[in-house]
User: Fold this.
Amino acid sequence: MTMAYFLLEIKKMTKNNLAIIALLIVLILAFSVLGLNVHTAPSVSLVADAQGNITVQRQAIKQMKTALASYKKNGEAYKLTQSSIQLTKKQLAQSQELIAAIAHGQWRSAYEIQLTQALKVKSVESKASGVSTEEKNAYERNVLLFSYLNAHPLPFVNDIAPTTGIQFLLQLNTQYLPVLFGLSIVFILSQLYSDDYRNKMNIASLLPLSAPQHLLVDTVSGVAAAVFFYLIINILLFAGATAIFGSGSLSYPYFTYQFSGGHETMQYVAGGDLIGPALVLQMLSIIFIVIVVLTVVRLVKDQFPALFIAMLLLIGMHLATLVIEPLQKVSRWLPTTYFNGVAVVSGQYAHQFRNASLSFLSGVAVLTIWIVLLLSLNFLGGYRTRNRQRLSAHV
Assistant:
């Protein structure tokens, strides 16, 4: 009977029209992001940067040559301008060499040029007065990026608008899917779990299942459906981006913050190193979301109030933590913080919230504790409800 009920619940969830619509909406929005990336990518590429530099450098040479005619030969201004012209010509030649290297797929040569330029800019600008810490970090980050790519000469993918399968998926799971998927799965589960209630009475309780069996089936079927939707979304998005722009590389660098001994350092690591830990947090987050929605529905016994409360507790709290400083101070203990597994594993949240204790391990611990706690409360609640129903039946 337990297996039959489980299969019935799975069928309800996977064949529900609202679930399919929600899935399609998420896919449409995600592929829209890919379309925007395709539109933006040419303007933020290395070639675009080099072409912009060439335009500026040629204009600067022209202006300096014009100014040279007004200076006295062998004068100080004349010599300085001549020296500046020669330096700018070298920079122009480098920019042209960079474009040629990229055009021929000579990525190591291209990254050597970029690294040389990045080191020069960092050396000059970091010593200038009025340079902020953010600007210095940006120069350092540029050096770190091209140092990594110089050692691992992979085709360049701008992290602002990635289009290759792996890099696009990492962007989506950092910036968009935690909220989009969360909204869709809360909506689907609240509607499906509420279907068991008529006039605030749980008709599924009439089935010959014990309270633990009923809780187990509801939880496992919800988790199975949510995981299925999550995997389908990611697989389709990866396949779509890969079919058009290639899969990218698991070794391509991803920017992270590392914390050791109270000190924060910036580092680029292979993007593939983040996928496993981030996926673990995502699976635990899905289990937590399912149990929270189930708990709210069992308490409220009405679809729309349950949907509103679940949205507020889950997605609302997740978004609030991003902007409310007092919540950021205790973010380590909030399970909703870990809905964005990539941001946690990469140290982005720890840096943004100024909370170095926020990590993969803290996420596993906090989510596991909350899952066990909520399951225990649901079990006790279901057991007491069944006892009341049996007493009522005898009376």
